[in-house]
Amino acid sequence: MRVLRMVAALTVVTVVLVVAAVPPGQAAPAKLRVAMILPGTIQDADFNAVGYVALLELKNTLGADVAYSEQVAVADAERVAREFIASGFNVIAFHGGQFLTIVQKLGPAFPDVNFIMESSGRVDGLPANVWNIGRKFYQGFYTLGVLAALSTQTNVIGYISGVRLPDFVASLNAVKFALKEFNPRAELLYTFVGDQNDPVRARQAAEAVIARNADFIIIQVNLGAFGVIEAAKAAPRKVLWTTFYTDKYTLDQQRFSASLLLDFTKPYRDVVARISRGQRGGYYEMRPGAGMSLGVIRNVSNETKLRVLKVFNEVVGNTRKIDEIIDRIVD
Amino acid sequence: MTLLFDAQLLRLTLIVMVPFLIAALGELLTERAGVLNVAIEGIMVVGAVTGFLVTFSTHRYGWGLLAAMGAGAAIAAVLAYFCVTLRASQLTVGLGLFVFCVGLGSLLYRIVIGVRLMAPQIRTLPPLPLPGLSSLPGVGPILFTQNALVYLAFIIAMAVSVFVFRTSWGLRLRAVGENPRAADVLGIGVFASRYVFTILGGALIGLAGGYLPLGITGTYSDGMVGGRGWIALMLVIFGRWTPSLVLLGALLFAYIEALQFKVALVAKAVPPQFLLMLPYVFAILVLIKVYQGAAAPEAIMRPYDREERA
Amino acid sequence: MTETQAPSAVLPLPHRPRRLPWERAGIYMLGVVVALAIAGIAITLVGGDVRSAYATVLRVSLGSVVGVGQTLNKMTPLLLATLAVVLSFSGGYFNIGVDGQIYLGAIFATGSAFALGALGLPRVVLIPAVLLAGIAGGALYAFIPAVLRAVFAVNEIFVTVMLNFVALFLTEYLATGPWNDPLAGEAITRPIPAAATLPMLIPRAGTHAGILIALGAVVVVAWLLARTVLGYQIRAVGDNPRAARIGGVPITVVTLVALTASGALAGLAGAVEVSGFHYRLILGLTPGYGIMAILIAVLARQHPVGAAVAAFFFAVLLVGSDSLQRSVGLPASAVFVFQAVIVLTVLLAEALRKR
Predict the structure, then answer these.
(1) Angle at the Cα of B226 from the Cα atoms of B224 and B228, rounded to 5 degrees
(2) What are phi and psi of B110, to 5 degrees?
(3) Is B59 exposed, middle or buried (0-12, 13-18, 19+ CB in 10 A)?
(4) Which residues 117-136 of B are in CB contact (within 8 Å) with A?
(5) What is the pLDDT of residues B161-194, one digit of tens each?
(6) Number of Cβ atoms within 10 Å of the Cβ of C32
(7) Does residue B140 contact residue B134 with C-beta atoms inside 8 Å?
(8) What is the pLDDT, as a whole number, of residue B306?
(9) Of C308, C296, C309, nearest to C343 (Cα)?
(10) Size of interface A-B (CB pairs under 8 A)
(11) What burial class does residue C124 get, using C-beta atoms within 10 Å of its C-beta: 0-12 exposed, 13-18 middle, 19+ buried?
């Protein structure tokens, strides 16, 4: 009974507080209002930071009202999205593919709101008010594979990836295809460290490939990259490396080779512009030439640079096709 | 055999063992005094961020490491106030502080560094060749050319071991953790001891956190501690509250972890996640083998109250 | 060293004088008010509007049907995880592996939904089957530390923490490997069949029926601990293991049952999250519910009904304070600091009151 009294009293207190504090609800304005939900912190100088930059760009170029929520766990994302919708946001962007279920739930529930999500390809049966941005990493990683094939002296190339996602498997296969074509003698040593953002584990994995004679490492972890970069610095020979998402040249100017830059500003600007023209949903592919570019190539010969750029442009222009194999690692 | 033992593998084991060992030794001192510090993972986060930020702005490793220790000590002092003076639940206060520290670490970085597209970086601790040993043919340059903290970790382990088991102060510490009432009767300051060793332990845990950016990555990122504090907490149990066994446990765990990455390059038929489980499964199996009812200090998690009747 | 001492005495809970729940609630409220005042000063310092910030906190968590509905969704896994902790702590067993058991429950639930859903079973059969599978998954996973503790006297804290890491890798394997949804580009599985999903309780608010299951579990655990011989024995072991042993309590059986049942509740939480909310197995399914559950359980003095009340207020705290990101523009990390300060001031108020 004491417990019941406690519950009753706390409920009364709560209700009083709510009644006293709740301001009148707001009406949704017609203006473009974009809210982004990010899975990590925007201070990561990586995946979440580039998403945040894309959001700011929407404000600058399209004059949209923008807001964001960072470090949102999947379990909380639906609630956060509903909060944004309730306070009048009409475009809700989910920065990542783990929010798929939530988009499928909220799309039909809020037919007047537009949703943007990211994935690694076309998703069937998405609601009509959902834009899906598909990221095709493997096409960019193919080019990094070419760079590695042409640059290695020891003919041993390391590949440090994180979670064994299908598009990362496809990227690994693409690198293998590049090696087969441009340097068949080169051996590829790959590891999945089980975490995109654990630099200590990534360093351990990198040290293991360096101990096996690797002199070029393709990095496919996010914040884990810091560990790989330190391992390369500590190596007994010069070890070059490449990264993705952001340019990490400043972290080691002697060993940085290239970065596959992911620029979400273009996809987001294009998608939101189409939304404001009334195109409520669709598929947008992020690939070389569309939100995916090769940063300045460094620390390799001019000849190598030119060959790599030529390949990249062929991928951009679709004159060079790369197989997308997601379910197994080819030999 | 070359798969299981080579100099590179041992070198990596040593580098990665350091945070486990130093943090576990800090926790050991704390627990020996009868206080359980479950904020250890959070204190390592705060140690990592202060160590990084101070080294980044002063360009001095010494200041960075001292700051990491100071931050760890400060958080531990809060824990001591709650758990020793106020006799609050060590488990809840520790977990509350854990959440606090994880937020605080990230927040400090946001305030000082902000949102950037290029991560700021410090140089990692330079290798320090041990005179004589480092010129041994073969293994010398690899094993005995480590950064200073690797050697320091071993020295701390020895010092803690000697202190706890070979000095009268150590005897008093154990008395405080095992039977605070008897210790009090003998004139040992129970409250003072618990404060001192909780704070000292916190300083070591902070140092372990500071080692991550200074010794391994050169940068700070949220989540970089990655559960290593929890592992250190486990190593104290694994080591049955004795420094030498904690050292052995830390070496073993770091070795299996390093070995696993080596095996992963060869064993392609096994899904990588199962290899990644190895250190944890291995630790459980070893514990079943070695655990024969070793117990925590008797008075751990029990606040001491002078007036309370036994 | 005290190597001869019985392992069951490892990390006992501090004994405390009993306090009226009513009085305790008052202390907790005081702590919350103090914390809000501290945070209010901080918000003012960064240039935020305290009144509107706190108004938003209440509006999003309790001020509308949708807010309450979402708070209940958040409360559901928290409450089930807390009950898991309550059950094990009552016997003096420290199950720190609730998060791992949640994952195993989610794995079993997802697997059974795939397997049984393919048979085209109706919803009335499929949903209970999926929930039972989750219970079994969590229970089996907790059975490992239970046996190691009961038979080999191995510290259950150690084993449960280590198994948390193992569960994460197992989830990652399934979510990126055999069950992966290749198009999402993340560690998530294909969706489970619609017939295996829990019905909505408040469709407009997106509230699923999981909260009813959690409240049902409160009744079961309360009855088990207060009204059954087993419950009495669990509490006896928790209060004083030596006396319980002398009194003829079968310690081995109690250990096995208490820890396994605790894991079963955690597994149910995982199954409810899959079947009610995610409709898939997802890496990141539990953002540390097991740790929060320990806090809630100790604040609620390991009382199942108290756990329900505390879990509700904890959910309000998490949901409400998270809105400060949007209303004041605080970084997420500042919100975590804010939440921790509230918990710590509550503990401080309680500890000061006790002196």
Answers:
(1) 115
(2) -60, -40
(3) exposed
(4) 117-119, 121, 124, 127
(5) 999 999 998 988 998 888 888 888 888 888 999 9
(6) 17
(7) yes
(8) 74
(9) C296
(10) 125
(11) exposed
